[in-house]
């Protein structure tokens, strides 16, 4: 930390006065700068222990202890998951993990990667998401400083009472849908999509409100999904995954800009596209763990054949067309965004 200044404590003592929102940055005895990080999953979730806690330690180490990140899981600072982006923007928390799909129609470029079949594996797709946002995201997260964008692995259909091998198996089934695009696809194949945050899924499966859910394996451990379902149905190898939601790690813009140059450099060095790649790789590891738990439970893992997935992808064409029009209506070049998203997923720089 060669850029640390001898008068850091005097500089940081006045830092809070420069912020428009109260309590964005505070000083404590153990560190000169405390940032609060808010997210929606319980502390037993792999993302909490395998990424957020190590990342917080890395920021502390890189700043010689000047930065402390206090992590508040399970919405401990109040509110609901769809409010996390606004909590960052308003300064209720300094950093948050937000899902754009929880506020449909607001972050359209980011939501594009949540359309059906816009995912390969988490690491590759995370890099694609971040690059797409760099190229087309513009002011979509105005008032917030994006630190990383990432994707989980492709979603699977986890069912209570019977497997899904073809679209016919979905007829009449109530499925917790992860976003509107996937809900439209499920509806086109005869299912009844149900929408609520993942945190409410356990109750829905337990009381029979839903017959299944569409989620990646990485969600299995924190919610014991393997105990609530009996079949996990995944796209055959070589086919794109059913869906993947874009995730965003966001920091309050005023908080970020008010940092001293050296502390901002620490944040910058631990964010960006390489952080997105790292989180995606971590999610690929989470995926393997979750799948292993499903296997250990003795649940049946069903592969949906590539030819069947191709039929589903054809059924999704009207969804892409409608999304292109929606992007156009918002002032974007919808065709260019969709083409670039697919090119990035296909490995084109």
UniProtKB/TrEMBL annotation:
Transmembrane segments: none
A GO term from the CC aspect: periplasmic space
Keyword set includes Transmembrane: no
Pfam families recorded: DctP (PF03480)
Any one of the GO BP annotations: transmembrane transport
PANTHER family named among the record's database cross-references: BLL6794 PROTEIN, PTHR33376
Descriptive protein name: TRAP-type C4-dicarboxylate transport system substrate-binding protein
Organism the protein comes from: Primorskyibacter sedentarius
